[in-house]
Design goal:
Layout: H1 2-25, E1 35-37, E2 44-46, E3 55-63, E4 71-76, E5 85-90, E6 94-98, H2 99-108, E7 116-125, E8 128-129, E9 133-138, E10 146-149, E11 155-157, E12 166-173, E13 186-193, E14 202-206, E15 210-214, H3 215-224, E16 233-243, E17 250-253, E18 257-262, E19 271-275, E20 290-295, E21 298-305, E22 309-313, E23 322-323, H4 325-330, E24 334-335, E25 339-341, E26 349-351, E27 356-363, E28 368-372, E29 384-388, E30 403-409, E31 412-419, E32 423-427, E33 436-437, H5 439-444, E34 448-449, E35 453-455, E36 463-465, E37 470-477, E38 482-487, E39 496-500, E40 515-521, E41 524-531, E42 535-539, E43 548-549, H6 551-556, E44 560-561, E45 565-567, E46 575-577, E47 582-589, E48 594-597
Parallel strand pairs: 2-9, 11-18, 24-28, 34-38, 44-48
Antiparallel strand pairs: 1-3, 3-6, 4-5, 4-7, 7-8, 7-9, 10-12, 12-15, 13-14, 13-16, 16-17, 16-18, 19-20, 19-22, 20-21, 21-27, 22-23, 22-26, 25-26, 27-28, 29-30, 29-32, 30-31, 31-37, 32-33, 32-36, 35-36, 37-38, 39-40, 39-42, 40-41, 41-47, 42-43, 42-46, 45-46, 47-48
Length: 598
């Protein structure tokens, strides 16, 4: 036992000395000093163009080597830094860039705007370089669109005869966007009178980075931009690029170019004049030209034609304002087969039909030139206009009792109308809601409208009567483009007379479609009636057989009755038409006591 204790003591002392020797022989080292770029807290950056001065990023490094007092920060689109870009320097252990600075740097490094772009950064101090860190960054566009064609030397005279031909083609580039960009950029092309800073620009949507326009479309744009027809003037052109974003749309504008444009006149002349040997009452001088006044979009009137040439003119006594056959052909008119190109050196119109009197109509909307039978009496586009609406005391919003406004002169409709403070509308066809014309339509056609009327602003933009309720004499003048109210004119005892009977074509002995003679003057009823050889009677109230007036009644009142009429001797002593069947202007003059046919 004693031996064992002594042995254990000796072993313990041995181990202590061995351990001490071992400790003295260990080489203890500290970590090697390093130059390290710390990993950033974020790896995806979306630059916000609305906050250009905000901090985009900050990188921090740890320099245990005391590499120097100045550090250089490099950026590269590749991890190997084959062509690094120096983006800044720092005398501290960190580096910061603003949104605007970093965005400019990225675009310079080849980034496409709004597309993710990976960049690598590192820091150098002399020959010593840190590790690199990477970011995925979305930049925004800084460059503006650039118009590449045309340039400031572009000039064009727009022509009415080449309406569908290309007038202008504009192309541009957007440098910050690659061909395969997924960003949606909405482009507009803007036009403005030169020097107005696009204050009242006319904008057109463009598809892609090109825009084309025809003579017809571009002419409308140019006139809307403020240029004057038939005058060469300067027009500014620029591109607007818009990117829609949640934080607010980003808009960029190209530098403008200035081109020279001469638009053509689209305003219709108030009168077309016809001069030429073919228009027998005119001849080739300006003493007695045939005048065709404009009613709405139509020129019309009677004309005596012989087989010779003539031409239309927009300005009296101005030979330079002539419009010949090829002109109307070029702008797309369908021309009556009795009119051809005279091929006389001036390409005038040549009448080839049967000489005589015709009604000629030039419809500028339908683009037609037609010849028809002459019109006897007042010449209007319609026999009457119809007034319907709550503002028309005798009508209301139904077709039971519409108020007729008869044609009483060339292009003029007039008559007494009872008005109250409510809305109404004009119509061209009885019973047809689709033929209505509201307040803005007349306004848009250039009509001067009586101050007692206004836009009803009722969803349909009807007329509203704002004056003192009562009966007024209403006149719609399609030639002078006026709608006027005047004092009631007690011209006739009745607003119109009605003709019913087998002798009136299209009428017969019922009330479905009576012929109407409107009051057209003091005591005068007049209108077109188509007669055939049979009997008829006059009535003062529509639908009331008891208001009829027969032949002997007029005879006994002292009327001189046209020789084409006689007593039908049919038991009711109706009128009988004995003349050549056809359309005539029938006039009943209650003051001079005459019934005449023309």
């Amino acid at each position: 036992m004693k031996f064992n204790k002594i042995s254990a003591l000796i072993l313990s002392l041995f181990l202590v000395f061995v351990a001490c020797e071992t400790e003295e022989s260990i080489d203890i080292t500290t970590p090697e000093a390093s130059f390290t770029l710390l990993e950033p807290a974020i790896s995806n950056i979306n630059l916000n163009y609305n906050l250009p001065n905000n901090e985009a990023f900050t990188i921090v490094w740890n320099d245990q080597l005391d590499s120097g007092d100045s550090y250089i920060v490099e950026l590269s689109p590749d991890a190997l830094f084959e062509n690094p870009t120096v983006i800044g320097s720092s005398s501290t252990d960190r580096f910061t860039m603003t949104v605007a600075e970093f965005n400019n740097t990225l675009l310079g490094a080849g980034a496409d705007a709004f597309e993710p772009f990976t960049v690598f950064m590192r820091v150098t101090a002399g020959s010593i370089t840190t590790n690199s860190v990477s970011f995925s960054v979305s930049s925004y566009s800084e460059a503006i669109p650039v118009i590449t064609s045309p340039d400031n030397t572009f000039e064009i005279v727009l022509l009415e005869t080449t309406l569908n031909d290309e007038a202008i083609a504009v192309s541009w580039e957007d440098p910050d966007f690659g061909e395969n960009t997924t960003v949606t950029v909405n482009y507009e092309i803007q036009f403005a009178q030169a020097g107005t800073d696009f204050a009242s620009a006319v904008s057109e949507i463009a598809e892609g980075m090109t825009y084309t326009s025809t003579h017809e479309a571009f002419n409308e744009i140019v006139l809307n931009a403020g240029l004057t027809a038939e005058e060469a003037a300067s027009l500014d052109v620029r591109i607007k690029a818009t990117i829609e974003m949640d934080g607010g749309n980003m808009e960029r504008y190209s530098d403008p170019i200035t081109i020279t444009v001469t638009p053509f006149n689209i305003e219709l002349a108030p009168v077309l004049y016809i001069v030429g040997a073919g228009a027998v009452d005119a001849g080739w001088d300006w003493a007695t030209p045939v005048e065709l006044p404009l009613q709405g979009t139509k020129y019309s009137g009677n004309i005596n034609l012989i087989n010779d040439a003539f031409r239309f003119f927009t300005v009296a006594e101005d030979w330079g304002s002539g419009l010949n056959y090829p002109y109307y052909e070029a702008v797309g008119y369908t021309i009556d087969s009795n009119l051809v190109n005279a091929l006389d050196g001036d390409s005038n119109f040549q009448f080839t039909g049967t000489p005589g009197e015709y009604f000629i109509e030039i419809d500028t909307e339908a683009k037609t030139i037609t010849l028809g039978p002459p019109v006897v009496g007042p010449n209007c586009n319609f026999d009457q206009l119809w007034l319907v609406g709550a503002g028309i005391a005798d009508a209301g919003w139904a077709w039971d009792t519409p108020v007729a406004l008869p044609c009483t002169g060339n292009g003029t409709y007039s008559g007494n109308v009872a008005l109250i403070n409510d809305a109404f509308r004009f119509f061209n066809v009885n019973g047809d809601w689709g033929t209505g014309t509201n307040y803005p339509t007349y306004e848009g056609m250039g009509y001067t409208i009586d101050s007692n009327f206004s836009n009803a602003m009722d969803g349909d933009s009807n007329f509203s009567f704002n004056g003192t309720p009562g009966t007024y004499f209403l006149t719609v003048d399609d030639i002078n483009k006026t709608i006027t109210l005047g004092p009631e004119q007690l011209q006739c005892e009745y607003e119109q007379l009605y003709l019913v009977g087998a002798g009136v074509v299209g009428t017969g002995w019922d009330w479905a479609n009576p012929a109407i003679l409107s009051c057209t003057g003091a005591g005068i009823y007049s209108g077109e009636v188509e007669f055939t050889n049979d009997a008829f009677r006059f009535f003062t109230v529509n639908g009331d057989w008891g208001t009829g007036t027969n032949y002997p009644t007029y005879e006994n009142e002292g009327y001189i009755i046209d020789a084409n009429f006689s007593n039908a001797m049919d038991g009711d002593s109706n009128f009988s038409f004995d003349g050549t069947p056809g359309t005539y202007t029938l006039t009943v003059d209650t003051l001079n006591l005459t019934i005449t046919l023309d």
